[in-house]
Amino acid sequence: MIEHAIDAVLADARVERVVVVVAPDDARHRALAGDARVRFVAAGGATRAESVRNGLARLAMDASAEDWVLVHDAARPCLAPDELGALIDALADDPVGGLLAVPIADTIKRERDGRVAQTVDRAGLWRALTPQMFRLGVLADAFERVRDPEEITDESSAVERIGHAPRLVPGRASNIKVTRPDDLPLAEAILRLQGRCR
């Protein structure tokens, strides 16, 4: 999955490098196919937010605060190249940055004690995807100022907490997040349809 996620990001020629944050004791990444633009950093933290914060600190060593950063989940291997291109194009001149997202199509229920407590109006609700794209300085500042990992569910949420309104860029429902074993066959089917399955 991680190779597919990396390949998806590298498919756009505007991406200069990919920094993959892995756990400090992870040696498996050494077996992955190499590309000179990919660097593995053993700086993974206890939470996603901590791992992103550590990755941003690494990037800040040789990038400027004005450089754009894409944060993508390894658990999302089905990102399509034109989806990534649309995100980069849409945000190139944006003052804040933003994220791929899909409008909610399902009926949403709020639960209480295992029963429906309320049907939530889905108008205006979107499901956040990755990548999410922000300038390095803005994103690093957001992660420094919002220290509680419970408040950061994605990069957009951190940027929102410091007063910005990230732009929503329409993505695809096929950009799934693999979280359970039964997601794997679906991811494989999507990758086959995209002609990317190895």
First CA to last CA: what distance? 11 Å
Strand order of the largest sheet: 3-7-4-8
**What percent of residues are in strands?**
15-25%
Give the uncertain stretches in residue-range form.
none
What's the structural domain tally?
1
| Count of distinct strands | 8
Rg computed from alpha carbons, rounded to a whole number of angstroms: 17 Å
The average pLDDT is: 92
Q: Overall 3D geometry?
A: globular
CATH topology: Spore Coat Polysaccharide Biosynthesis Protein SpsA, Chain A
How many separate helices?
6
Order of helices and strands: HEEHEHEEEEHHEH
CATH superfamily: Spore Coat Polysaccharide Biosynthesis Protein SpsA, Chain A
The CATH level-2 architecture is identified as: Alpha-Beta Complex
- Profile the largest sheet: 4 strands, mixed
Structural class: alpha/beta
Q: Provide the CATH top-level class.
A: Alpha Beta
Indicate the percent of residues in helices. 25-40%
Show the helix and strand layout.
Layout: H1 2-10, E1 18-22, E2 38-42, H2 48-59, E3 68-71, H3 81-91, E4 97-103, E5 108-112, E6 115-120, E7 126-135, H4 136-145, H5 155-161, E8 167-170, H6 184-193
Parallel strand pairs: 1-2, 4-8
Antiparallel strand pairs: 3-7, 4-7, 5-6
Helix pairs in contact: 2-4, 4-5
Q: Can you characterise this structure?
A:
- The chain is of the alpha/beta class and about 200 residues long.
- The chain has a single domain (about 1-195), classed as Spore Coat Polysaccharide Biosynthesis Protein SpsA, Chain A (Alpha-Beta Complex), CATH 3.90.550.10.
- The protein has six helices and eight strands.
- A four-stranded mixed β-sheet has the order 3-7-4-8.
- The model has no long low-confidence stretch (mean pLDDT about 90).
